[in-house]
Amino acid sequence: MIGRILRAPLTRLLIVAIVPAVVLGVFVAALAAADSGDARIPAALVNNDRLVQSKGADGKTTTIAAGRLVVTGLTKPASSDAGASIDWTLTNTKDAERMLADGDVYAIVTIPKTFSKSIASVSGTSPKQADISVRTDDAHGTLVSQIGGVVGSTIASTVGGQITTSVVSGLYGGYATVRSSLLQAADGATKLGDGADSLSSGLGKAADGGDRLTTGASSLGSGARQLASGQRSLATGLGTAASGAQGAADGAKRLASGVGQYTDGVSTYAKGVTTYTDGVTTYTKGVPDYASGVEQYAGGVDQLLDGLVSGAQQSAAAQSQLADGSSTAADGIRGIVANDPTLSAQTRGALSQIAAGLDTAATGQAALADGSRQIASNPDLAKLRAAGPPLVSGGAQLASSGKQLAAGGSTLSSGGSKLAAGGAGLDSGTASLASGLAQLPGGISSAAAGAGKLASGIDQLGTGADQLSDGASQLTDGVRKSADGAGQLASGADKIGSGLKSGATQVPNLTKAQQANAGKVVAAPVNASATRANELSGPGQIVSTLIVPVGLWIGAAALVLLFGAVSRRLLATGVGTGRLVGGALLRGVVVAVAQAVLIVAVVAATLGVSWSALPALFLVAVIAGAAFLAVHQLLQAVFGSAGTVLSIVLLGVQLVAVGGIYPIQLVSAPFQAISPFLPLTAAVNATTAVLTGSSGGTVATGLLSLVLWALLAFVLTVAVVARRRTSTALFSATPALT
């Protein structure tokens, strides 16, 4: 149905007319994010800078954190700054290298640890340029690498300009400040000489007061030490008392716990005694019955043994008689057989068997008679008969001891009840004792703690008094020395005043070489050095990463356009659909291999690609050409000749989504989402990995994606052709590839 619609003349004209507009619309939609300024290129920012302390011309020490200023300027830029179009990630060197290798970022900007030190040197006599390094990887896009270099230069220029302005302003401002300070110091030195005379007089009086302060502080320290010694003794005694009280309290607790366990055991014991006496009562009641039963048992045993012996003797006599009778009968039968010739052979046989059976019976009966005699004469029967009387006597003794056991159980039960009552009283008293002793250690500990704190405070007082005494003594000595030095200060102040006035008229001078170096560094205080990992050697290699896959895509489109997918003649045969489509694809792959040979040869001859990369590039070209051919075969199977027009539109979409014109992060979100799944993306990634010599995993991933595309397109083409064959609709009128 789709094929019939697309084959209509008006429909074809409309499709051809809107193709340029569709392709243009794809580019406009994809680059909308870049034009709006919302899209950003991911980059890593590594700040290894160390803070330095710099002393300015005015004598003030300033902390310089130039690296932090650069980080702040890049991560929070204005819309016109160098970092405005970059999504910065602040990280360390190791993680940044990993992110660059994985393609998570396109550039690494590194601020070295000597950055602030170099910046600080700008205001000295030996200034040095501060370096910023920018590292990119051509394996993730050469255009981004070029952008990285430009960004590095822009950062260096912008940061360097700010530093130059600050240095020049601070330099001349510092000189003015120094000159003003020198003049003020000269005036102050003159006044200092006048004040030194007054200071000498006042210091003499202060020395006398210091002597008196030393004496009083020494007395205070001595008394405080004695008081602290007494307080420590008190605290020690209270601590010992608290320890003893705590031990008593712990013992009382253990006593209370043990008494509780004891009373619990007494209660359990009393209950057990009650149970025991109940059992004894039951036992004593059953003993007479047991004795009576024993007597009956002994009498029954005698009767049983008498009957057993008598029966065995009678059985032995009977079995002997039966054995004799069986033997006599057997002999009679054998006599009949021997003496009566009129008997038939069958009768003789039967009588002989009967005689044999009677002999066997006689033998068994004789054995039974012997067994019965052994039972009657067995000596163990006499032992069994003798065991009866002692058993009867023991039963009588057991009945007597049961009565005594019942009497003792009653007495034991009464004593257990009294023991339980006494245990309850002991438990209550022990608990009261433990409660009282538990409160005693707390009070003693509080008193000991207070005494310890008091002793500590008195010690501190004594220490402070000693320090006060020492300080007063030192003050007295210092005041006397200051009084002596004040006179010398007055004399030297006049000399300082004249020297400062002379120095105020001078400013630092630099040699010509120092001036030239300072001018160079101040003009460009920051230098950006750019490095590119997996660098493509020239424009030819850069162009090849995109041109080779695009050429293979166009070649596949031309191949299917000229020769079709599957011929009408073959569709009418009985050959299986899979075989038809596979055969057409295989014949096309042969041409695709030839295309790969030609395109690799052209690249090697004209674009300067390394010969070592050509075998891998040829493999990528063959697999990409086969995959693209399968995709175009599917397009023509579904859309007919309009599939070629759709191929042009898809090429435009893929050129934008693959990042071949812009970095992928600068295109709109939908194109970023589909980019990893497009066949042209896989081909470009594999080609770039081959030409840059980067990770082999990238090449393998790209080739695997192309193989999956080829298989998917082949399966879908088979399904479409099979459906059309069943509906007897031929979808292509162009000649087949033969």
Automatic annotation (TrEMBL):
Transmembrane segments: 12-34, 542-563, 584-607, 613-631, 638-662, 699-722
UniProt cross-references to InterPro entries, sorted A to Z: ABC2_TM (IPR013525), Phage_infect_YhgE_C (IPR017501), Phage_infect_YhgE_N (IPR017500), T7SS_ABC-Transporter (IPR051328), xxxLxxG_rpt (IPR023908)
Keyword Transmembrane: yes
Gene Ontology MF, one: ABC-type transporter activity
Subcellular location per the Swiss-Prot or TrEMBL entry: Membrane
Entry GO terms, CC: membrane
Keywords, comma-separated and alphabetical: Membrane, Transmembrane, Transmembrane helix
Domain ABC-2 type transporter transmembrane: 14-162, 506-718
Topology with respect to the bilayer: Multi-pass membrane protein
Name of the protein in its database record: Putative membrane protein
